[in-house]
Amino acid sequence: MIYNHQLPPFSLQTSVNLEGSLIGAKGVTHFCSVLRKNSLPSLKKLNLNRNFAQEIGMKCLYQALCSPECCPLLEQVSLASNRAEQSVLDYLCGQVLRARPSLTFLDISDNNICLAEGKAIVTMKSNKPQLNTLQTLDLSFNPVEDEGMHMLFKCGWGMKREEKASLSPTPNICLQHLLLVNCNIGNKTFAYIGDLLKTKHFQHLETLSLGINNGVGRAGILPILEAMCPPEARLERFSPSTTHSIIQIEVAQQDSTQLPVPVTTTVLAVPTLRHLWLPLNNFADEGLLAIMGAALQGGFRCLESLDVSDVGASPNTISTFISTFTQHVRCDSLQKLVVFGRHPFAQRAIRSCHFPANFLRRVKVS
Predict the structure, then answer these.
(1) Which of 79, 167, 214, 271 has its CA 20 to 30 A from that of 193?
(2) How far apart are alpha carbons 112 and 143 in whole angstroms?
(3) Using CA atoms, how far apart are residues 366 and 192, in angstroms rounded to an integer?
(4) pTM (2 decimals)?
(5) 89: Cβ–Cβ under 8 A, 6 or more apart, which residues?
(6) What pLDDT score was predicted for residue 179?
(7) CA–CA distance from 350 to each of 17, 334, 347, 355, 364 (Å)?
(8) pLDDT of the chain along its 366 residues, tens only?
(9) CA-to-CA distance for 189 and 210, rounded, in angstroms?
(10) How open is the CA angle 220-179-132, to the nearest 5 degrees?
(11) At residue 45, what are phi and psi to the nearest 5 degrees?
(12) Secondary structure in 3-state letters for the chain
């Protein structure tokens, strides 16, 4: 049998995926020479993940993309696991993003980008990375740390820590998906992100991923929860000693009015947030109860997925969270809830928790 199937011409390719090809700096250099010849004018997606391009490869890619004739339609660039370190920011987040407003997706995860060092911060200040046009930024698995993250927000988006909620938001920030998994950040960065959410700098944010970091206790998660909740919400009431009575009051109020959880007409600071992922932080019992309080008071009514696994809470608190969340929280948009992690008691906790059938029909629990 003869197949007369022809591949589209190389010049018409809209996507190039070289992930895991291990072509190294030399291979990336040769590929960039092809790009400079404008051999891929229709290219929209470029995936060079796991090729160990290092600084040499990043410099060649920078030289290619600085030309406006090279791949004018390019929208997505993935450069994870290339051992590029600071060079990926120096070369790609400055002139390239300024010259290419259509480039909206950038994955630079796992490149050992460490912004806590003095030299790296000085370089970033001078290069002035431009991140306003990005819709997706993945910085996961880079040891950015709190100081480096603060500087990146300040230089990349022009934000200052001193800004107050009364100031008007920055209208040209397009960020929709921010992934900061395992960036060695803690309560300082969580509080900073919470402040930026409250001041409506990230008005279009849909995904916030902060897993495998150093958020500790209620103080770690409270600023973000406060930004998600209506202004009249009082999350400080939810603590290990008072939660049971507070839940009874909340439920009694709902039953007496036969209405769902009160939905305020106030426009929330983050009305677009759909995915909140917080696994492997040390929020402990008080942090998980604060999350539950935010859910009870209408903060999660637009969420589609929530991951609070491995946050250092006890089995009893996890059971309280599950029973309250599944029975008394109105989250009609929720599709996925992750509460069980890798703790030894996880299977026992699963057996002891009751999930209503109508909840399991619409929500995937893991």
Answers:
(1) 79
(2) 6
(3) 30
(4) 0.87
(5) 108, 113, 124, 127, 129
(6) 96
(7) 40, 20, 5, 9, 14
(8) 455 556 567 778 899 999 999 999 999 999 999 999 888 899 999 999 999 999 999 999 999 998 888 999 999 999 999 999 888 888 887 778 888 889 999 999 999 988 766 555 666 666 667 788 899 999 999 999 998 898 888 888 876 655 444 445 555 788 999 999 999 999 999 999 999 888 888 889 999 999 999 999 888 999 999 888 877 776 665 655 555 555 555 555 555 444 344 444 445 556 789 999 999 999 999 999 999 988 888 888 889 999 999 998 888 888 888 888 888 887 888 999 998 766 544 555 555 577 777 777 778 887
(9) 10
(10) 105
(11) -125, 125
(12) CCCCCCCCCHHHCCEEECCCCCCHHHHHHHHHHHHHCCCCCCCCEEECCCCCCHHHHHHHHHHHHCCCCCCCCCCEEECCCCCCCCHHHHHHHHHHHHHCCCCCEEECCCCCCCCCCHHHHHHHHHHCCCCCCCCEEECCCCCCHHHHHHHHHHHHHCCCCCCCCCCCCCCCCCCCEEECCCCCCEHHHHHHHHHHHHCCCCCCCCEEECCCCECEHHHHHHHHHHHHCCCCCCHHHCCCCCHHHHHHHHHHHHHHHCCCCCCCCCCCCCCCCCEEECCCCECHHHHHHHHHHHHHCCCCCCCCEEECCCCCCCHHHHHHHHHHHHHHCCCCCCCEEECCCCCCCHHHHHHHCCCCHHHHHHCEEC
Spatial CB neighbours of 271, under 8 Å, sequence gap ≥ 6: 203, 302
- What single-letter amino acid sits at 152? L
Tokens of residue 292, six digits: 């539950």
